[in-house]
Amino acid sequence: MARLVAGVGTSHVPAIGAAIDLGKTQESYWQPLFKGYEPARKWLADQKPDVVILVYNDHACAFSLEMIPTFALGCADEFAPADEGWGPRPVPVVKGHPELAWHIAQSVILDEFDLTIVNNMTVDHGLTVPLSLLFGQPREWPCQVIPLAVNVVQYPPPTGNRCYQFGKAIRRAVDSFDQDLKVMIFGTGGMSHQLQGPRAGLINRAFDTAFLDNLTADPDKLARMPHIDYVREAGSEGIELVMWLIMRGALDAKVREIYRFYHVPASNTAVGHIILENQA
Predict the structure, then answer these.
(1) Residues 103, 125, 263, 273: which is the catalytic one?
(2) N or C, which end of the chain is more exposed by having fewer CB within 10 Å?
(3) 227 is an active site residue
């Protein structure tokens, strides 16, 4: 049977992708950030997952105000990098795992989660930046990737509890898949940041640290946090952190924290990263 062994949380700042693509990773501004991901890249290289379920939000590339699914699962064979206005990132095409993706879709829908099934979409920096941070710049991504897009752009986004429970449903789906696969799940976005208005540039280290602490030790507390707390404490874009709760919900109740990294600033945002491993 498939085994979901670990979860990863990471920010997906678009400027990080530009720094990688333009060869700026060793510049003084960026070098500390990329150095902070080196232990994670080594850990993943040792772990060698077969499939990553990557939870992210689309930034008006695959979807628009004309169509806004709350949860959308990519079930195709592959997903090309999106053109976000300056051409697609020079990264490999994402290879999907249609068999597992369709199994997850069937399982969670019958588990009473309304899911949009997507057979053709491009993937933007929300998905490709985490892959670059965690796998470097390979000719091909070293594992298959199932994209799971979550609406955290247009009101109303799903609640933290809904995301947490959705993660649990994904875990049940993976556990019932009859292929021998090593599966991981990434939750991306955040941490505290606001890109517009009088509070543009907001960073709340205390909130971010508490979020990481509770993600490991008390995710039920995070699941009860209302939207307004994210907006007040973490900025308007801080709501992206509910996507980390999908990742956490898919893991065991008790997990082992393997690694944590936090860095400020990265293009006016706080960058957070955590690796959680199922103790079994």
Answers:
(1) 125
(2) C
(3) no
Does the annotation count 125 as an active-site position? yes
Catalytic annotation, pick one of 103, 193, 263, 273: 193
Enumerate the domain spans of the chain: 3-278
3-278 to CATH, choices 3.40.830.10, 3.90.79.10, 2.60.40.10, 3.30.530.20: 3.40.830.10
Q: What is the pLDDT of residues 67-109, one digit of tens each?
A: 999 999 999 999 999 999 999 999 999 999 999 999 999 999 9
What's the 3-state SS for the chain? CCEEEEEEEECCCHHHHHHHHCCCCCCCCCHHHHHHCHHHHHHHHHHCCCEEEEEECCCCCCCECCECCCEEEECCCEECECECCCCECCCCCEECCHHHHHHHHHHHHHCCCCCEEECCCCECHHHHHHHHHHHCCCCCCCCEEEEEEECCCCCCCCCHHHHHHHHHHHHHHHHCCCCCCEEEEEEECCCCCCCCCCCCCCCCHHHHHHHHHHHHHCHHHHHCCCHHHHHHHHCHHHHHHHHHHHHHHCCCCCEEEEEEEEECCCCCCCEEEEEEEECC
